[in-house]
Amino acid sequence: MSVKALKDPEKLSYEEAMSELESLVGRMEQGGLTLEESVDSYARGIALTKACRAKLDRAEERIRKLDEEGKLSPVKASDLRPDSASRTEPAAAAAPAAPADDFGDVPF
Prior knowledge:
The protein is mostly helical.
């Protein structure tokens, strides 16, 4: 099936997008795709990943809006922007540890 004939990732449910992404990754890992198929599959995978991330972000915002009674408060579209102050970013990765030897850059 051509990647171009597939449904817009934003219109898929989270589960549909994840299922398609898992299938796509499996086909790519098996090999046997042409270069063009690989590039198209990679692009589709990126689009699916972005759609899934957006759906997760929206779900997270809805959960944050839960009040003490367990009811969802209305969420404004402006609250769902990726640059929202309520969104937390992952911590930066730690720098790799220095080598345990005293040889520096000696190649042998």
